[in-house]
Amino acid sequence: MPQKSDALVMEEPGELAVRQLDVPDLEPKDILVKVELSGICGSDVHMYEGGMDLEFPVVPGHEFAGVIEDVGSDVETDSRGSPVEPGDKVTVVPGVVCNECWYCNNVPTRPTTCKNRDVYGFMSTEYRQGIHGGFSEYMIADGRSSFYKLPDDMDVELGALVEPLSVATRAFERAYSPGIPDAREGIGVGKSVAIQGAGPVGLLAMSAAQAAGAGQVIAVDAIEERLSLAEDFGATHLVDITDFDGDDDLIRGVKELTPGNVGPDAVIEAAGIPDAFRQGIELPRDGGTLVEVGHYAYSGETEVNPTRVVQKDLDIRGSLAYPPNQFETSISLLDQLKDEIPFDTLFNYKVGFDDAESAYEKQKSGEAYRATIHPSGV
Ligand SMILES: [Zn+2]
Ligand SMILES: [Zn+2]
């Protein structure tokens, strides 16, 4: 077992340094992962800019995949029950709950409500075993973690999409309930879904909608390049916001694409722009659903008219991360669609530790869909 691990540590917001951290002995239920790559997402940029109240130094990286280097004496299977051994490709659920608080005891299906939740990639190097993040040659997933083996024939890099894909598939599934699609309650096969924002989460939500049998997948964005990628990710209709003259015109344009011109059955707001939420209240048909997933990090406010929510008898649902077994859904979706959808095109800026700053910049500017850090080099 390795004794040391090179890690890209954020000493303070915006300050990155390569440090050598100790690899501690494994507890019986721990696994040690040799990280292949780790994505930079919006929340990482937020941390980089000082928007998060964390205890630094932090080993960032919560969207990662790699190969099992070693397992503790009690580890026989992954969280799905598949046997695991060193050498297997793996991805780890970053969120870890306490199993003790009121929420863990009373609402276990919503683990993000846990009041003592830890998330790998946001933890101090001083905390527990130290190497709890993906920007590290080796990372330890401790015994409370859920982790999933990737199919043997899946490129390990796709494993780094399982986390954002889980954000997307859960947001999509939030639109299902109460789930009698024939009675136009919830959504199902053949129904119409619009997705605002063709960034990584939006694109992945489109692939989820396609896999789930949506009849229409309407992509709404203002950037032409993203809209053309949306087509590859399952969008059946593309709406370029810049072709329309204000909210009313845009809303009319989207509704005209749907049967009866009433609007989509469900709308997923994945743009993370406050105005998109305001539009998102108007876009679905009456009695439809709006899922808000885009505003994970604060990006401003918007004015809404609550009367419209009542008048439309609208269901609005927030979607924060996902329960651990959402990873099963996402791995199976990747496996099912990996030959059809060019998932790997999202990784359009790959760097080693040395160029990490530029990767944050590219992710922030939107030039990178998912910039990735490769601890052992590109
Ligand atoms: Zn993320
Ligand atoms: Zn808890």
Please explain how this structure is put together:
With 378 residues, this protein is α/β, with parallel strands linked by helices. The protein has two domains: 4-155 and 338-373, Medium-chain alcohol dehydrogenases, catalytic domain (Quinone Oxidoreductase, Chain A, domain 1); 166-318, NAD(P)-binding Rossmann-like Domain (Rossmann fold, 3-Layer(aba) Sandwich), CATH 3.40.50.720. The chain contains ten helices and 17 strands. The protein has helices at 42-48, 102-106, 162-174, 200-211, 224-232, 246-255, 274-282, 306-311, 326-337, 356-365, and strands at 4-12, 15-22, 31-39, 63-71, 89-92, 95-96, 118-119, 138-141, 147-149, 192-196, 216-221, 237-240, 266-269, 289-292, 315-318, 349-351, 371-373. Strands 3, 4, 5, 8, 9, 16 and 17 form a seven-stranded mixed beta sheet that branches. A six-stranded parallel beta sheet has the order 12-11-10-13-14-15, with helices on both faces. Helix 1 (42-48) crosses helix 10 and helix 3 crosses helix 4. 48% of the residues are buried. The model has no long low-confidence stretch (mean pLDDT 96). The site of one zinc ion has 6 residues, from helix 3. The site of one zinc ion has 9 residues, from helix 2.
